[in-house]
């Protein structure tokens, strides 16, 4: 029990530290290197905290560039932390290093214990040696860099992402997909990376001996430059072209790197020619990738470009409810779920992060999760997501939707074709703005607050038993919140 509480404490501290680092380093650097960090073991006697990253590459990168900053942040948050170690997650396979020395001989053995040692016989042809050696097989026969928690089962679908999810499942199926490559396009935090990891898991389940490689475009360029400088291009080419499934995230960061673009182009052509599968993800469409040569743009868009739209409120609600399944012992009222779903609408990552932070805080302090607690503890996230929707904007949108004149919102007419839209507008004003009943009444021709209360209750009742009314309100909510 004490260990569980300590884990919760570390998670809560890390949520605050991570948020601060995001502001200092920027969204991209944070998402790429800081977000994947997981707090691990903490030794109270020595004051040593282990921070885990999914791959050896990312652990080395973070240790080289952010170790001092991470150590200082933890010491400020928890004075009892005196040392911070950055390690590869013990449950993840480390990425073996295949370095070619003089004459094409590997200069070091792979990291995997099961790998064979190299001999003169199997290095006569360097490319064949790399492709056929046990070292390369060990590299490919495992979900290298894949997050075990990000599967299709844990991915919540809705109208905004169902195409991308279905396409991703087809890409991982046993049958050969009708399209390749698959290009997932969506804004930050909408689920692109989750789908990449899910494809890797499902493909490996369907093809147990498949060789899979997941990387970011930034990592691709780093390894390309290293191979170029160390005269290891034969190995680099062989590694890439030996995979059955290549997953490349954040492809937008290959912009302007002519030599790396050319190598990626040749790799795509080689893999497609052999019937291999490729999946790319980016925050913009291929045609919007400025600084990328036309031939590469053509390859990226030749398969299927699946767009992931921002999650609508129904999907955000479903994601929160799905996430709550991991906190079986925590009671989160429905009004809190509704509040978070309506307010945190920029991206799914912030939405889930907000719920995690709220639950962690409630457990640490012994308080019950409530709407007031959510408003107090999530001020930064809420203020960043909150878009000011005005009553004037609501009236204008409702009038356009029902095709009535704007003056009807304040008129005294009681025809049904006018009254019902007016009541819908009052209901939306109460749901989407902080205005009181009397303030809303004044914006609707000086009506009494009791009239507004009646309208809100009536629309709530109609939504529960009239599918058409519920559909109208949902459609208006999507328009106003988009």
Automatic annotation (TrEMBL):
SUPFAM superfamilies the UniProt entry points to: P-loop containing nucleoside triphosphate hydrolases, TrpR-like
Provide the Chromosomal replication initiator DnaA C-terminal domain boundaries: 390-459
- GO CC annotations? cytoplasm; plasma membrane
Q: Where in the cell is it found?
A: Cytoplasm
Positions of region (Disordered) = 97-118
Span of domain AAA+ ATPase: 178-326
Q: Please give the Gene Ontology molecular function terms for this protein.
A: ATP binding; DNA replication origin binding; lipid binding
Q: Name one Pfam family in it.
A: Bac_DnaA_C
Q: Could you confirm whether the keyword Manganese appears in this record?
A: no
Q: List the keywords (alphabetical).
A: ATP-binding, Cytoplasm, DNA replication, DNA-binding, Lipid-binding, Nucleotide-binding
- Where is this chain compositionally biased, Polar residues type? 109-118
Region Domain IV, binds dsDNA, as annotated, extends over 363-482
Question: Among the record's GO biological process terms, what is one?
Answer: DNA replication initiation
Listed under subunit, the entry gives:
Oligomerizes as a right-handed, spiral filament on DNA at oriC.
Recorded domain comment: Domain I is involved in oligomerization and binding regulators, domain II is flexibile and of varying length in different bacteria, domain III forms the AAA+ region, while domain IV binds dsDNA.
Briefly, what is this protein's role? Answer: Plays an essential role in the initiation and regulation of chromosomal replication. ATP-DnaA binds to the origin of replication (oriC) to initiate formation of the DNA replication initiation complex once per cell cycle. Binds the DnaA box (a 9 base pair repeat at the origin) and separates the double-stranded (ds)DNA. Forms a right-handed helical filament on oriC DNA; dsDNA binds to the exterior of the filament while single-stranded (ss)DNA is stabiized in the filament's interior.
Q: Which family does it belong to?
A: Belongs to the DnaA family.
> Per its record, how is this protein called by name?
Chromosomal replication initiator protein DnaA
- Native source organism of the sequence: Novosphingobium pentaromativorans
